[in-house]
Known about the structure:
The chain has helices spanning 18-24, 46-50, 161-175, and strands at residues 8-13, 26-28, 32-36, 43-45, 54-58, 64-71, 83-84, 91-94, 97-100, 105-113, 124-134, 145-155, 177-180, 183-185, 195-198, 207-210, 216-221, 236-237, 243-246, 250-253, 257-260, 263-266, 277-286, 293-302. By secondary structure, the protein is mainly beta. The strands form 5 sheets. Strands 1, 3, 6, 7, 9, 11 and 12 form a 7-stranded mixed beta sheet that branches. Strands 14, 17, 18, 20, 23 and 24 form a 6-stranded mixed beta sheet that branches. It is elongated.
Amino acid sequence: MVMKKCWKILVALLLASQSFAAMHGLATKFGEVILSGMYPGMVYSMKKERKLPYTVINNASERAEVEVTIAKPTSSQLKENYEEIPDITWVKVFPAHFTLEQGEEMDCDLIISIPEEEQFTNRHFQAMVKTQLAAKPYSPGVSLAFSYSSRIRFSTGPRPESIIQEYREKIMEALQIKIEPLSFFIDEKIVPGKKTRLDGRKNNTVQVINRSRENFSFKFSVPSRIKDYGIVTEYEPVPAEVKVTIKKKKMKVKPRSISDIVMEIAIPDKEEFYGKNYAFVVVGKLMGFDIPIELFSRVYFRTEEKK
């Protein structure tokens, strides 16, 4: 039986290995994958259920004989909080041996089956997917083989919490997108009783910088609880009566672009709001990922003294 629901996947780096391709002719679109919520006794297909094949590309100038195998990780390959897979037959590759002409690619399926035994619940396993190119022999009986390995990690239960942060860091590094500055100080003092617009024209504002070649979508918010974001101690969170509005709560960010996050700050004309140091946080949730991927900027401002 193939389970079609109740398992989650973190695709940490779906990047072709350019260095491997340049040196030896092969590349993959499968750098590292992290799975969770799997169950002993079930069978999982990466290609059929998650539309995530293990793609091998032949960038060489001639035909290549390719073999994809599963191996246990070495001590240097094994990630913290994970143990090596007890039996490499838990993961099977289809097809595992094939020929690629110049420029061709093959979508392989990884089938993961976990024995239905209680001892395998709530554990975290790692295996290596090894792609090998067998070069032509230089002399009778002698040949050279080059290989490239990708990690596959899976949990029969919740993933280790530390993996969430590791995943976020890899995503940010791979996606080349960020919100800047991390701490944004508004130069002019804000006058209570008036609305102040931050739009990148009269007043500078926070920006989304996309250095990648991909489109991304964000959903923005201003959380009420901001102390967890590490605001400067001499500033206090904006009170409920101070309204911070993000004019475009959803934004599609184009490749190689810089986009302004337009905001408006409205402070009541009351005695208690004069001469204050306030802070709020703009959070941008990156849409389309299995776990929350959030970027943020801390915004600081001072209000005018009462005249």
